[in-house]
Amino acid sequence: MRTQNKKLYRHLLILLVPIALGACSSSPPASTVAPPPSDAPSGAIFFDGFEDAKELTDLGPEDLSRWHGGQLTVDGNTVELTTEQVHSGVQAVKFVAQPYDGSNASKADLYRSGLPFQDADEVWTEMWVYLVGGTDTGNLFLWDLEAPDTCILFTCQSPGRRLYLSGLNGDELVSDLGKWWRGRAFRQPRGEALSFPKDRWVRLRVYLYLSPGKDGRMRVWQDDDLVLDAVGRTLPASGAVYSRLQVGITANGNEFDTNTVYIDDVSIWDTDPAWEWR
To answer: Which residues pair with 266 in a beta bridge?
Structure first.
């Protein structure tokens, strides 16, 4: 089963947007990306509930309406369709990533390219996350919004805002501006942080007002609780374009434990979806 998973995943990457680790990689133009399916939430520019897929490569159709690739960087990491844990419908996607070995980032994810988000734009995303408990989930990255064509001195590492788990045993959501030389981490107030639930489905919502300056804004909800509400740099540079969203285990930075995450019902909006929150 593991061999089949790797073959399917490599096939998905070859057909769509091959990964060039350590180099700039362009996204397909937004004009070539098909619109979301008819069952998408109102106003969403992208939605996938992972239904109607018999194998992993079905998530990467030629019309580019779903996912455009992903990453498997360490032997033993897997991405597969599953019925083990499902938020809605009949299946979700299961991501398993081995511990970080101190040199090679351990990744197991999917990504959507061709997104158009730039300075002064607003972004809303939603996905359902089931984090398997019983392990240390410190430095487990779940969500990356990236600008793959933004480089420093010809070095392109796809900088962008990321969400990961930190704190005791990896229980608290944090956001950093990863792979960039400026931009502070957004953290929950000391002594008031809410633990990220494990062994159940959690609705993870993210809002961003994009700015390379001090007026950027980020809000993050787990279920109905606003856990991050921060002002600061949300875009690496004024000319940067967030064209790629990665979900799953975008990196397992934990050096001790293999971690498992299920993802279902991923949505992206470029207009306000009118969420109710407190």
So the answer is: 48
Domains of the chain from N-terminus onward: 2-22+43-269 (2.60.120.200)
pLDDT tens string 176-227: 998 777 789 999 999 899 999 999 999 999 999 999 999 999 999 999 999 9
For residue 180, give Cα distances in angstroms to 115, 155, 233, 236, 238: 20, 11, 11, 7, 13
**Residue type for position 49:** G
Q: Dump pLDDT digits (tens) for 48-103.
A: 999 999 999 999 998 899 999 999 999 999 999 999 999 999 999 999 999 999 99
Q: What's the CA angle centered on 255, arms 257 and 86, to 5 degrees?
A: 40
Helices (H), the chain: 2-15
Q: 184 CB contacts (<8 Å, ≥6 apart)? A: 177, 232, 233
| C-alpha count within 13 angstroms, C-beta hemisphere, residue 213 | 3
CA distance 233 to 216: 5
**Neighbour-count burial of 271, counting CB atoms closer than 10 A to its CB (0-12 exposed, 13-18 middle, 19+ buried):** exposed
**Residue appearing with tokens 């990665």:** 246
Residue 20 CA, chain-centre distance (Å), reads: 18
Sort strands 217-222 and 225-231 into parallel, antiparallel or unpaired: antiparallel
pTM equals 0.89
Q: Name 178's bridge partners.
A: 160
Query: Would you state the structure tokens that stand for residue 41, as one six-digit string?
Result: 């939430």
Q: How many other C-beta atoms lie within 10 A of the C-beta of residue 153? A: 5
